[in-house]
Design brief:
Rossmann fold, globular, 14% strand
Length: 496
């Protein structure tokens, strides 16, 4: 049995639980994680000494380490955007990775790190408090800087935009100085690739073609080229642990499954997903290869990854406007999936037609024609990259282990969360319930308060009506709000 030590990006279910779920009842993999209580809570960073001691004590007899560099350095994804750690302190934490490898030379270190995001909108929920007022302006300030650097605007246009935005200097200095420190830490970490780190994945958290994140990404690429470090950067964040877990599984098995992406129409390949900066096919191919699989054509494929996408601009499931992608030929798309599945092929579904939730119409068609529980994987949550990393990992586990009880439970959980909650319950409560409960989107009366109780009721009602295939076999054992807000939900699903 191979021992994997896992240090997640943060304590939310998508980071902490999904990987653990994937390997439960597995007789080839034993995964060890820190206590969730040591990993902080949203803006509160993890206890560094606890994390350090955990790694030191558990890596001695481990075969692999899945390491979130952001958790090690800053205490989690949100603390990475808020900290006031000195560069010296952060560099010492980077150097601990080197020490860890020196002390455990047989340990295979599979690490991932993020390029710090810069949201396009104003919200202080996951950013510094001043981002609530000046967030959009800070983003536009970065776009202005980027376009001026690239000679896309004149100096007069540049100065006029700076003056118009009028972001207080103290906030700009705070924001930019933290970005500089984080970028310096990422470059220092990159120097460990090939020596202290066996595999390293850089993920771009919420990206745009122009702005601070794009400039940082450029600097990383320039550095890797100069240092001759062969590494890819692609969109993503919360799926990083799953991607590396899948990659480790392919190493353990000594084989890379062949995956072929399938699209509703050829032009869907060129859609640029919300919160990302390049055509979706590039992210799909990068996600497949990062997970240790190989890209394949239809003829030779062992896993068929059905990527549900729009023909034109992607919409957010929370804010649908106009027609819901009438240009797609969903019946033909589903028929192709059904034909492959009934011929014994592995069919997995990346439901990425919308951001932040699945496609109810499409999923119901799949349930009727194939059965969701027979799929090699299903996901449809948050960003396209989050979904892709999740379902690709699940499909690779399916390839090696088949349609296990664990696999079906995870699929059932995805239906309850990605379809029932993200598409219906969250929006319904946002529009109709929060005021009655004296709550807001960012204040859900704690993790297990009135919002979680009402959410569970609505989840049961909706799933029983729309996805009886799932509801009749699986029930909610636990329902809570991990960050005491409406956006995400924590679920434990079990057999009835």
């Amino acid at each position: 049995m191979k021992k994997i030590v896992y240090l997640p990006l943060d304590e939310r279910p998508c980071n902490y639980d999904f990987c653990g779920f994937m390997v439960q009842n597995n007789n080839e993999i034993n995964m060890v994680r820190p206590k969730k209580s040591d990993l902080g809570l949203k803006k509160t960073p993890a206890n560094y000494l606890s994390v350090k001691n955990f790694l030191s004590s558990e890596c001695g007899d481990a075969d692999y380490l899945i390491l979130s560099v952001d958790m090690l350095l800053y205490g989690g994804i949100v603390p990475s955007r808020l900290h006031y750690l000195s560069q010296e302190e952060i560099f010492s934490r980077v150097d601990f990775i080197k020490t860890l490898k020196e002390d455990n030379p047989k340990l295979k270190v599979f690490a991932f790190s993020l390029v710090m995001r810069c949201p396009t909108y104003s919200s202080g929920d996951e950013e510094p408090d001043y981002y609530e007022t000046f967030g959009e302006k800070i983003f536009r300030y970065g776009v202005n800087e980027h376009k001026y650097i690239d000679n896309l605007i004149s100096k007069d246009e540049y100065e006029a935009e700076k003056s118009r935005l009028n972001v207080p200097e103290k906030y700009l200095n705070d924001y930019i100085s933290r970005r500089k420190i984080n970028l310096a830490a990422l470059l220092r970490t990159l120097k460990l690739v090939g020596s202290s780190m066996d595999e390293f994945l850089i993920l771009q958290d919420d990206s745009n073609p122009y702005g601070f994140t794009a400039l940082d990404q450029r600097k990383v690429k320039e550095f890797t080229k100069k240092e001759k470090i062969n590494i890819e950067i692609h969109s993503g964040a919360d799926e990083g642990g799953l991607t590396l877990l899948a990659r480790i599984l392919t190493k353990i098995k000594g084989y890379s499954p062949k995956i072929c992406p399938i699209y509703p129409k050829e032009e869907c390949k060129n859609v640029i997903p919300l919160f990302e900066d390049k055509e979706v096919y590039k992210s799909i191919e990068a996600q497949i290869e990062s997970a240790g699989a190989s890209l394949s054509d239809e003829k030779d494929a062992e896993i068929y990854l059905f990527c549900n996408l729009p023909v034109g601009k992607m919409q957010n499931i929370d804010n649908l406007k106009g027609r819901q992608y009438d240009e797609r030929d969903l019946p033909e798309f589903v028929k192709k999936a059904e034909t492959l599945a009934k011929s014994g092929k592995i069919v997995a579904v990346a439901d990425i037609a919308y951001s932040n939730g699945g496609d109810i119409k499409f999923a119901k068609m799949l349930s009727k024609s194939i059965g969701l529980l027979t799929l090699g994987g299903y996901a449809g949550w948050n960003t396209s990259s989050n979904t892709l990393g999740t379902v690709i990992c699940q499909a690779i586990f399916y390839y090696f282990y088949g349609n296990t009880k664990t696999h079906r439970l995870f699929t059932a959980e995805r239906v309850y969360e990605d379809l029932s909650y993200c598409v219906y319950v969250r929006k319904y409560m946002w529009d109709n319930e929060l005021d009655k409960l004296n709550c807001t989107f960012y204040n859900s009366n704690g993790q297990r308060g009135v919002v979680s109780k009402r959410a569970e009721e609505l989840l049961n009602d909706f799933t029983s009506r729309e996805f009886s295939e799932i509801y009749e076999k699986y029930k909610i054992a636990d329902c809570y709000m991990p960050w005491s807000r409406l956006f995400e939900i924590g679920l434990k699903i079990e057999e009835r």
